[in-house]
Design a protein that fits this description.
- The chain is α/β, with parallel strands linked by helices and 122 residues long.
- The strands form three sheets. A five-stranded mixed β-sheet has the order 4-9-8-7-6. The protein has a two-stranded antiparallel sheet with strand order 1-2. A two-stranded antiparallel sheet has the order 3-5.
- The chain starts with a strand and ends with a helix.
- It has five helices and nine strands.
């Protein structure tokens, strides 16, 4: 079902659908793959994400430390996509599993995965 978000129409889907359609690797938080996606936010600045990301957003970033999970949980994001085959540290993985908030991985750079996500949601 289409939804209106900042004057754009996009189609909602579950994180598992995103994983399947884009061939993303699930690194942690697999028990949250049924979370519903409601848009996307791209930033590597935690303060920017805290101030501007919305509940249900995908967060595309290259940040891998534990503070990423604190921000993602606070904002109730759907999932995190790490670019360029980056791997989160052990604390991040543990927190992701505890929170049921998926951390996904792609080998693509930010620009390319952002384009694919945009095309998938619109």
């Amino acid at each position: 079902m289409p939804s209106v978000f900042t004057n754009h129409i996009f189609y909602k889907m579950k994180v598992q659908e995103l994983v399947d359609k884009l061939g993303l690797k699930v690194l942690s938080g697999a028990n949250g793959l049924d979370r519903e996606i409601d848009g996307c936010y791209i930033s590597d600045l935690l303060s920017d994400v805290m101030g501007n990301a919305m509940e249900g957003n995908i967060w595309i970033t290259l940040q891998t430390h534990k503070n990423v999970m604190a921000v993602a949980s606070l904002k109730e994001l759907a999932c995190i996509i790490l670019v360029k085959d980056l791997v989160p540290n052990a604390e991040t993985i543990e927190q992701s599993n505890d929170d049921g908030l998926p951390v996904l991985q792609t080998s693509l750079p930010t620009y390319e995965i952002a384009g694919l996500v945009y095309n998938l949601l619109h």
